[in-house]
Write a structure and sequence with these properties.
Layout (H helix, E strand, L loop, with lengths): L3 H23 L5 H16 L5 H24 L1 H30 L7 H28 L5 H22 L11 H10 L5 H10 L1 H7 L2 H10 L7 H7 L3 H12 L5 H15 L6 H6 L4 H16 L2 H14 L7 H26 L1 H25 L6 H18 L4 H9 L5 H30 L3 H19 L8 H12 L7 H5 L6 H10 L1
């Protein structure tokens, strides 16, 4: 059952870490023109000559793409950090990156330096790379098996809430502008109690530095609250060998004294892994017993990013413009798409335990591939047939819905579920690196693809969605409501390997579960 400590730890870790990943993905879209003016003005002040446009384009694409590059570096730090500092420890240390970057970005305009913004985007990326892997791992290890999927989707829910928050705060009428005078007056009015003059002068400086700097606040909240919650019980028991602490953590999270079943299951997992030891990334790639799990997470993570979700988001503005939405209203349309994204991910939280992971992944990729195919058609015909531009809006919305119910939230849940304790950190490191590399690649290549292929670039995304869907259909098993050991047995058959399980464990299956014992013996 859902207990208060479990709900709180899920909310605090998702708000303090995942939220900011989403926030920083979309935060620089709205204030882009003002930030580019700032780059220009700073350069002019320094050199006395205006910046030429190709250099400005280069600087801006660096500002955008340094974030996923940092994400890749962050993913590479997952394995050493979660094994040495623990899951909770890693999240706490990680906040320092975010707070440092927030301070730097927030003061960049006062300091008259745009290089700091680009540097901070790398640091924020490192933060997001760690967060996007460690939060699902942390929450997946703490959840009971019947809530693991639902709680595993919470980080993705907060990523979408972060994207939406940045879109709303970035509206021109709020902070997505060159100065925040109107806002400053509101704040100084509200903050008469404190020393409002300092506050006002901070906000007066400009709108967008505040927008960029706000990202430090969730980190601060997490830094102050997360220490009061337990570390992952699995980490405590299996990696630290501390049963007492693990038992205490479990009792708090489950709200009951009797946690023997789960402790037993962890010991069982521990024993089956003793032979293998801790996995590094290299041993993960060479170990036959995890071959299909590894291929599966690489395919799912690559499919998630290469299915063109960033391309669709990027293209959305133009699609709406061509459908006749006036340009000053487009940012509100973008916000509504962000809201659909949040609502559909929230829906996934509630249906992932009843429908299962497989159905959501397959349905999601199916909807995305259909949307991409029809979108290609609609974009091609919209100059000849007037209502085609409305069809393309429908396609964008359908695509967002499809991605939000499956491809976005489920792969991280699956990494937690398909790997046992000793290989999980290395698996997240691989999955995370694939995620950020693919994200970086789409960001880099999409503009060229679009210039060269026009609307046909969505056919490539369609092909990727279909390929991923077929792979999932034939290879990926359903994992809902199974223990990590049960999932491991299903995959062991696929990998054609025997699982190391001690003799007494096989005989200790309760009467109702003799069929599992048979399944085990037959698979050996």
């Amino acid at each position: 059952k859902m207990t208060l400590p479990l709900a709180l730890v899920a909310l605090i870790s998702a708000f303090g870490s995942s939220f900011q990943y989403g926030y920083n993905v979309s935060v620089i879209n709205s204030p882009a023109p003002y930030m580019q003016d700032f780059y220009n003005k700073t350069y002019l002040d320094r050199t006395g000559a205006p910046m030429d446009s190709s250099f400005q384009t280069l600087l801006w694409s660096l500002t955008v793409s340094m974030f996923p590059l940092g994400g890749l570096f962050g993913s590479l730090m997952v394995w050493p950090m979660v094994n040495n500092c623990g899951r909770k420890g890693t999240l706490l240390i990680n906040n320092l990156f975010s707070i440092a970057a927030a301070i730097l970005m927030g003061t960049s305009e006062l300091a008259k330096t745009f290089e700091v913004i680009i540097l901070s985007r790398v640091v924020m990326g490192i933060f997001a790379g760690l967060a996007s892997n460690v939060v699902p791992m942390f929450l997946g290890e703490m959840s009971p098996k019947n809530l693991r999927g639902a709680i595993g989707v919470v980080p993705q829910l907060f990523i979408t809430i972060g994207i939406l928050s940045a879109q709303i705060l970035g509206l021109n009428s709020i902070l997505g502008n060159a100065n925040g005078k109107a806002l400053a007056q509101d704040i100084s009015g509200a903050a008469q109690g404190e020393d409002s003059s300092q506050l006002t002068s901070c906000v007066l400086a400009a709108g967008w530095p505040v927008l960029l700097g706000l990202t430090g606040i969730p980190s601060l909240i997490q830094l102050l609250t997360l220490p009061f919650f337990p570390e992952s019980p699995r980490y405590l028991l299996i990696q630290k060998g501390n049963e007492e602490q693990a038992r205490r953590a479990l009792q708090r999270l489950r709200g009951q004294e009797d946690v023997d079943d789960e402790i037993q299951e962890m010991y069982q997992e521990d024993r089956s892994e003793k032979e293998e030891g801790q996995f590094s990334v290299l041993s993960l790639f060479t170990y036959k017993g995890l071959r299909w799990q590894l291929i599966s997470i690489i395919v799912m993570m690559a499919g998630q990013q290469l299915s063109g979700v960033n391309g669709v988001f990027y293209y959305a503005d133009r699609i709406f413009e061509s459908a006749g939405v006036p340009s000053h209203s487009i940012q509100y349309v973008t916000v509504s798409i962000g809201a659909i994204n949040v609502v559909m991910t929230l829906l996934a939280v509630f249906i992932v335990e009843s429908l299962g992971r497989r159905i959501l992944l397959l349905a999601g990729f199916l909807l995305c591939s259909a949307s991409c195919a029809i979108l290609t058609l609609a974009l091609n015909l919209q100059n000849t047939i007037s209502w085609m531009s409305y069809l393309s809006i429908v396609c964008v919305i359908a695509y967002i819905i499809g991605h939000a119910i499956g491809p976005s939230p489920i792969p991280a849940v699956m990494i937690t579920e398909m790997f046992l304790q000793s290989s999980r950190p290395a698996a997240f490191m691989v999955g995370g690196s694939v995620h950020w590399l693919s994200n970086f690649t789409v960001g880099l290549v999409f503009l060229y693809m679009e210039a060269g292929l026009g609307p046909y670039c969505f056919l490539i995304f369609c092909g990727i969605c279909v390929t991923t869907m077929l792979y999932i259909f034939f290879v990926v098993p359903e994992t809902k409501n199974k223990t990590f050991m049960e999932i491991n047995r299903i995959m062991a058959k696929r990998n054609k390997v025997e699982i190391q399980e001690s003799k007494e464990l096989k005989d200790s299956y309760p009467p109702g579960r003799q069929d599992e014992k048979k399944a085990l013996s037959s698979s050996e």
